[in-house]
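User: Can you write out an input/output pair for a complex, sequences first and structure second?

Assistant: Here is one pair. Inputs:
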Amino acid sequence: MSSTRNRLVTALLALWTVLVLMLLYVPILSVVLASLANTRYMRFPHKVWTLDAYRDALGQYTTAELHLTSLKIAVLVALIAVLLGVFGALAFARFEWRGRSLYQRLLLLPIFFPQAVLGLALLLAMTAAGIAPSWRTAVFAHLVWVVPIVTLVISIRLYGFDVAQEEAAFDLGASRLQVFREVTLPALAPGIVSGGLFAFLLSWSNLPLSIYTTGSDTTLPLWLFSRTATNYSPLVPALAVIATGASVLVVVAAALALAGWRRLVARRSA
Amino acid sequence: MRQRVSPGLLAMLPVMALILVGFALPILLVLLYSLMPPRTFSLAGEPTLANYWAAVTEGYLLPLGWSLLLAGLTTLLCLVLAWPTAKALVRFAGRFATLATILIALPIFISESVRLFGTALFMMPGGGIFAGSLNALFGLKIGSILYTRTATLLGMVYIHFPFMLFPMVLGLSLVPQDQIEAACDLGARPFQVFREIELPLALPGITVGTLLTFVLSLGANAEAAILGGQAVIVITKAIEQRFGYAQDWPSGAALTVLVILVTAAVIFPVLRRLDLDRLIRR
Amino acid sequence: MTTSGPILSLVGLTRRFGEIAAVDDIDLEILDGEFFTIVGPSGSGKSTLIRILAGLERVDSGAVLLRGRAITDVPANKRPTAMVFQSLALFNHKTVGENIEFAPKMRGVDPAARRARALELMDLVRLPEAYYARPVTRCSGGERQRVALARALASDPEILFFDEPLSAIDYRLRKMLEVELKDLHRETGKTFIYITHSLEEAMVMSDRIGIMRAGRLVQIGPPLEIYQQPRSRFVAEFMGEVNVLRASEFGVAGEGWLVVRPEQLRPLAPGEAADVVFEARIVNDYLLGSRKQFHARADERMLIGEIAVAAASVPGPGEPVRLGFDLGDAVRVAE
């Protein structure tokens, strides 16, 4: 390959990537732009650019209620998924055991499965079992899909872990529990944190599972979905922006809390 | 270290229990319901294939056909669009690639109802973001593809693009740069390098991306609902109607089983051959 | 070196993996304060053996006795031993200090005493005090070795095990660390059990060496004895390139082999006699510092010899040469 040609290919690839990035953000930007109006009908460009819709959205009881429902589902999903995911990952990547290969494949099935179809199947199963769908059943539905993902995320971390570290700790007098607490868990910590954040965000933004498994409870994506077709007002895009902003806020807060906790631990042990 | 029960077996129990109760059991129930007489709500009926017959004769294969077509086209478009992007991300390993990767990944965590809603706002005729801007800037008046099958397809490509891209990047990053250089050094032209070196080595990643994209878009219904208007009824929508308005569980279950069969037919042969340890360990 | 009876006795130790006996009926006594090295090629079972001694691997039969008391079923965390692992197995999420203090911490020693002990050990293994708070991920290869050593010593073990810790280190640093390890052994007076695939490394440090092959210890003795009196072809060849000749071909009665070291096979001056003489032709030669090694062909036989560079009569490649050795210099081995 000549270097001129090589440079041309490189430039084209870079240009392409920038184009893809722009296209990916066009819809998101569109939501933000649409939220800055005060007319009931979409007439872009707006005659008046205003934050009124945000003021209205923040003043509404629905906004708080929707956030609360989404939050309690996502937090529960994240906590349970991490707990199950740690053990799931140990079985996936740490231990050698008969049936591991089968387990690895079974674990992937819920990921390689149409989510909405899973939601429908769960709805049928719950109705048949006489369980009324609510935010609680949504937590369960999310878990079926999120736990395998979290397990994979933690497994990736586990693959890079030198098992001899556990043996070394054991050899130096640590009990099984101490080995887990002092060596395995801290080594997995980055995977656990990213797994937890993944779980939270995936649950927070999930639509296809929530549609069929929340019953009369409504999550943010669900409410937005129902309002995109009917009853449009700038309130809808404003709430979409607020909901997305809220998840960013939770992630940033979690990251800050974690950094603070680390510093605290570091200071205590120093 | 004496061990009677392997610790791996113990560790997988909670996850496996979840998958059994939350995945295998519902699918089993759907399968059983699909064999019950139409419009019944118990599993005590005489097993019958009537629902499958009805699915074929009463036109429910049409939504399935649409879903398959849309999923196939989505997968194809994603493959073509993701390949140069994946190449770029692997080639520019460094700050630009990291930033681009993060920027591409972030929207996954924004609800698809928000993103599809945004797409609709962008495409809207007259006062939409695109049409409105053109009108204001250049006095151009254009039509819109919103509420068409094309819009549905574009929405599906938009939503599923990252699921194709990231496994592909993973696969491509498994191709050692020195092998590509060795091939060039031995006289291979760019297309030969692609066919002889890159494609075979990156294949596991591409396969995973293809499967993921196809299967996820097979069940997609938000795209059709938000961008398609009444232009197309996808299979998930049809199942939902059988379960809901029609109150015919066995009929909906039979349609669900058909989707599951398609999914299984695509997933199982590939999943069996995949070396997961190698792909994930890197 | 204090020698007061065996600290560790291995009795009929056996461990099988499927059909293969990784450790095959081993009996061995290791003396208190000894530096004992087990040498063997990869797959000889030496790693399994040391892991059994550390309590990290179970046995199928046999016993391990510590000062006469059976500890075969005592798990690693209850044994007064510590291991330096091949990968070092440093805790990557901890600092140098936290790594070293691990064993005392597990034992509930208070932080101040732990820290004092860690600093003392860092001094012993020649780690600067400033490294105490440094993450181990920011240490060089040699520094990581020292951290691993200090961490093992911090548990104040009666026996220290080493599982090829120097195998991934470059030559110069390895030589330096070998000497330091030997010094440390003398200073601490502890029993060191070391495994390696390098006999050269074993020679430098050990009081006694055990040569392991296919799960068995085929020869045990002080380094010089192993070098001078190998008991089998395997041991002789393991120590480096040697000439192995069928004994019966040279008028020596009985089956078996003659092992002739390169330095014992010398070019003969015209008229000089030797018990065995080869008419050969030099194929190739290599400079080894002050000595030169050469390969020569005598009929179908390849021979390896060595000569001081200072000696004038060194023939070059392609030249004919008369080579010879005396039967008294050769070592006779049965197998």
